[in-house]
Amino acid sequence: MKTGSTCTAAAVLSMAVASACSADVWPHADGMMKHIMVALENQTIMVHVEGDPLESLEMLRYPGESYTPPADVLNEKFYNSRYGWMADGFISLPDGAGVFVSVLSSDAGLEVYEGGMRSMKHMHTYAPILGTAGSDPSWLWGGTMVHNWYAASKPGSYSATYSVYVGDVATGAPLDGYTPGQATVFFHAVPAPGSLGALALGAVVAGRRRREVR
Ligand SMILES: [Cu+2]
Fold first, then answer.
1. Residue 16 domain-assigned?
2. 11, 80, 162, 214: which one has the fewest Cβ atoms less than 10 Å from its Cβ?
3. If DSSP codes are grouped into helix, strand and coil, which group holds residue 194?
């Protein structure tokens, strides 16, 4: 059999090959999940970030890759989807109420695009949210695990602080009688995987070795 067969010919042979030929390219979901756990206790939103709450997550860029729309908003950007909103126990709300995430502060250049479960990245909307590209600074979280995509065009350190509150689904207005919680996310965008990062690590190792010799 000729190895240089065209996609069309191969597609006739099998559905699996056909799907490979459609050549959809989705963004990478690298790194471990880090959940922002949200609980509601006595009408108070309690938020805690798994692991070290001050950990800065690395955003990576994959030069030359172009993703299938609508994921192409991440083309040539540094990005990551490790943070995920997750319910910590059952959140019981009155009819017409939902849990909102709203920007209190966000570093210039930090972008957020709507995600979902990481295994379902072909289903995400990739819509700009949380103030990105002029979008609403409040975002209605559906209560299931959602890993939004954080992105930046330039290397650097970024953070954003959010209020997490119970609000009216129709208007986004906070509901009386509920106390909001707060969460901060941290990122750093590095120039290229394994280049400058590896050099910096090498310098640290060299420094340590010198100290050990002495
Ligand atoms: Cu998750």
1. no
2. 214
3. coil
Ligand 1 centre to CA of 81 (Å) is 9
Q: Tell how far the Cα of 164 is from the centroid of ligand 1, in angstroms.
A: 18
The answer to whether residue 11 is domain-embedded is: no
Q: How many domains does the chain have?
A: 1
Question: What range defines the domain where residue 164 resides?
Answer: 28-213
CA 9–ligand 1 middle distance (angstroms): 39
* Residue 108 tokens, joined: 């210039």
CATH of the domain at 153: 2.60.40
Quick check: helix, strand or coil at residue 57? strand
**pLDDT tens by residue, the chain, 214 residues:** 344 334 444 444 444 444 455 689 999 999 999 999 999 999 999 999 999 999 999 999 999 999 999 999 999 999 999 999 999 999 999 999 999 999 999 999 999 999 999 999 999 999 999 999 999 999 999 999 999 999 999 999 999 999 999 999 999 999 999 999 999 999 999 876 555 544 454 444 444 444 433 3
Give CA separation, 127 vs 62, 67, 123, 164, in Å. 20, 14, 12, 20
Question: Is 141 within 8 Å of 85 (Cβ atoms)?
Answer: yes
The CA 168 to ligand 1 mean position distance, Å, reads 26
- Residue 37 in any domain: the answer is yes
Tens of pLDDT, residue by residue over 119-165, are 999 999 999 999 999 999 999 999 999 999 999 999 999 999 999 99
Whether residue 21 is contained in a domain is answered as no
Ligand 1 centroid, distance to 32 Cα (angstroms):
9
Q: How far, in Å, from the CA of 202 to the mean position of ligand 1?
A: 32
